[in-house]
Amino acid sequence: SVNEIRKDFPLLENQKVIYLDTAATSQKPVCVLEAEREFYEKYNANPLRGLYELGEAATEKYEEARETVRGFLNARETAEIVFVRNATEGLNLVAYSFGSLVLKPGDEILVSIMEHHSNLLPWQMVCRQTGASLKFMECEMDGTLDLNKVEALITPKTKIVACTHVSNVLGRVNPIRELAALAHRVGAVLVVDGAQSTPHIPVDVQALDADFFAFSGHKVYGPMGIGVLYGREELLNAMPPFLTGGEMIESVTRDGAVFAELPHKFEAGTVNAADAVGLHAAIDYVKSIGFTAMHQQEVALTRRAMDAIGEMPHVHVLGSEKPEEHCGIITFTVDGVHPHDISEILASDGVAIRAGHHCAQPLLAYLKHPSTARASLAFYNTESEVDRLLDSISTLRERMGYGK
Ligand code: PMP
Asked: 133-137 and 108-112: which strand pairing?
């Protein structure tokens, strides 16, 4: 039950704030903190370097974490799992390394209009460097992607299709498997931003047929500073390293180097083993709760919120009308009230939500809402927290000076 779950998240219980900003970063269960502490207390040494016992233990913990991530994504090979800092770094790695390898003037990259800036700016950058050009898949006003429209945009010029699995504004799950089929038909690769899907739905990169898939540890109840890039082995093998230096080489001479095997080729410098171990604990925790139970609680809370908001004439929720199509994300506007005022008033009521463009400015411009408010729920939130949110929202206009 959620009461039991709350015991795993002392911050939610101890702080006075009602935390409804999980899409920005999730809270972390105690087992994640304990796993990090145990790593530093018992296994700390530079992984992949020290040939003494402690160094080997650190390496083992780090590689166990990688194997756990492989299972979490159902990748074929452990070598396909590259540890990075966050989803942003994973996506940049693909853009720089794979993009510069395959793109030439006249080629096209197709991205969705709903991308987070971290799955847009790297592509803008690589277009400037290679002479490729960027095209956009637009969505319907409720956030659905019409695959017939997408199909018309994919041509033999298309080399890369990049799409978020779940939009951080709309919360809807995109048809990744279908996009993969369309991309693969013309020999393009599909790059998936999994930052918002991994915390809420099971991911199987083989079933999705994704070529690259990136996510952030801190959004899946794990630590900040660790993220993952999955890439198909043959693609990763063909790609040049993104960063170079120590730990990613076999041998080095005065004027050259032989790079290490995957995945180490892409992990230059001392690795973030402690946070990888924390991510391992977070994934074990997610498994122990189960996505089914998480989904049930998230949908129940989202339904409660959306039903009540539906009765408020001046409040509008973006995206699907169905609570089960939101991954806990409720992005909304209130007529006549600026989202920054919404979030400030809610903050004064002890409710933490997000306001602004949510690092998805092209989407908000397209939807003609330059700024919105966003409450994002997780399985660890309660009905009474949602009710506090609703109480605050229902009095917003009055408190801004509008009549009842
Ligand atoms: N993509 C999406 C859809 C996101 O919501 C976020 C985080 N807001 C990111 C990418 C970037 O994640 P990070 O900042 O952890 O790299």
From this structure: parallel
- For residue 14, pLDDT over 90 is answered with no
d(CA 26, CA 11) in angstroms, rounded, equals 11
CA distance 88 to 119: 7
CB count within 10 Å of CB 11 equals: 11
Ligand 1 centroid, distance to 279 Cα (angstroms) = 16
376 touches ligand 1 (CB under 6 Å): no
Q: 279 CB under 6 A from ligand 1? A: no
* Residue 49 pLDDT grade (very low, low, confident, very high; cuts 50, 70, 90): confident
pTM score, whole prediction: 0.98
For 27-43, how does the pLDDT look when each residue is reduced to its tens digit (9 = 90+)? 999 999 999 999 999 99
Q: What are the tens digits of pLDDT across the range 69-117?
A: 999 999 999 999 999 999 999 999 999 999 999 999 999 999 999 999 9
* Ligand 1 site, residue 216, Cβ cutoff 6 A: yes
Atom of ligand 1 nearest to the CA of 359: 8
**d(C-alpha 233, C-alpha 204), whole Å:** 16
What distance in Å separates the CA atoms of residue 164 and residue 203, rounded to the nearest whole number? 13
Substitution candidate for ligand 1 out of 22, 94, 112, 118 with most atoms within 8 A of CB: 118
